[in-house]
Amino acid sequence: MARAADITGCILAGGEGRRLGGADKGLVELAGEPLVAHCLARLRPQVDAVVISANRNLATYRDFGVPVFDDAREDYAGPLAGVLGALRRAQTRHVVTAACDSPFLPTDLAARLHDALHAAAGEIAVVVTAGRLQPVFALYEVTLADALSDYLDAGGRKIDTWMRQHRLVEVVFDEAEAFMNINTPEDLAAAVRRLGGEP
Fold first, then answer.
1. CATH architecture of the domain formed by 7-77+92-193
2. pLDDT tens-digit profile of 131-163?
3. Domain limits of the chain?
4. CB 126 within 8 A of CB 112
5. Helix, strand, coil % (nearest 5) of the chain?
6. pTM, 2 dp
């Protein structure tokens, strides 16, 4: 697996899982393992450290052996709250984020985003597949923490809107299926089939 130095990986597991009946998506099982375990296995070798942003079942997530934190906000602020928590806690120059329900994420995600960020002197590098931004898969300079905090305090919630306020580098990944999210029972069944099992 490709590895880039000075990066903290943050798995975003704070969603409400509405289309999966309110399930905590990171703990939904795929091939006998929680989705977050699949994500961890792919992300951990790419980075210097990993943290998990979660709003439920924090003790269960801590069983995976990495630091876990919640949004620490009274209002549900979406994935940007998790990004902010990671930017505040990281002991590295960068944070790369991934969704907890992305069991097939590329094993060179961090390195490719890191290389593109520095080649373009950017502040944020974000994945683009099939012409669409995939904003939960992105690399950030930790110096953006104050700007993000101000955006959230002002009521901002749209992740792509905030990204475009900064030096944004769009990084094209041809393998769109690598960023598959498990949002519905049908998605879960498709992931099982992809692994060669029976849904």
1. Alpha-Beta Complex (3.90)
2. 999 999 999 999 999 999 999 999 999 999 999
3. 7-77+92-193
4. no
5. 40, 25, 40
6. 0.92
